[in-house]
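Example record

One chain of 340 residues, shown exactly as stored in the release files.
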Amino acid sequence: MMGLRSMVFGWQIGLWINGVILGIVAIATFLGFASQWWWGFSYLDYPRPQYCLVLLIGILINLFAPQPGAVKVWHLPWGIPLLANVIFIAPLFIAPNSTPLTPNFQRLGVLHATFDRDNPDPQQLIQYLNEKPIDVVSILEITPDTLPQFEAGLTNYQLVAAEPRYTSHGSAWFVSKGAIAAGMKPLSSEVIHLPADSDRPILTMTVSIDGEPITFVCFHAIRPQSAARLDYQAQEFTALAHWSQQQTQAGDKWVVIGDFNSTPWARLFREILQTQEWVNSQPGFGLQPTWNSQFPKFLQIPIDHCFHSPIFKTLRREVGAKIGSDHLPLFVELGWNRAN
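Predicted structure tokens for this chain:
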């Protein structure tokens, strides 16, 4: 009898703790929608997949725990915050409608890697890239010390443009020698600023494929660590959306890839997704988290992204292995119909 009472008491304590955890996650779920009132709530907007996991496990514990059926009914409202989170995540698993590709469509593989500027040894990333047939590669957080190592070590690639810095704003573009041999021609590179008064350099590169120019942008948004920085991130996203609109309306092909320091369901990110002149490469491919590479997979979130002009179709999208950084590399294969 005492053993049974102890077991029942143990279940009661466990269910009480489970209820506290569910309550905390439910509160965080809805406070995440309130970042326009206080910037700190924006951080609660990021771990929505983790909220889903905790809520689902907690609901299942409540449903299968030894309790009267009438008591279990009171646990059903926990499904409301679960549904609220699922609504923002589910679209990433649904492939959008796109223009069908003709049999002779063109392919292009683009990879972005956010390296660690404090890591003096890029050999892990160099080996990773040399083992993969990628057409175009962008690297963020490249420094004056690591750039010569990348240039010498990436034997399958040609350096096209570089803006090395000791801060996190250094970047470089590499093009596969095989792609160049097949007809890809680097045309130009340029440092732009988004917004125009920003001191953060954004390195662009334009190449020609079958006579068609394509502009690539290595984007790096500010970390939203304060109210002012969150407001500045909004300005960066707005400037990027305006830039993409101008490019698309001019009939130009473009690809933006990089570290956005935001998840796709965060408020500011959702606002820029309303831009009609660009396409997010992620829907149809799931969560694909890229940060933090040191965390277990179920704790990681996607903050590296790729957008492109509507003429492209995302054929493949993958997150790579560890490269000596807190970010995982992002690979996107694009396809589009040839002009002729």
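Notes: The two ends are 84 Å apart (CA to CA).
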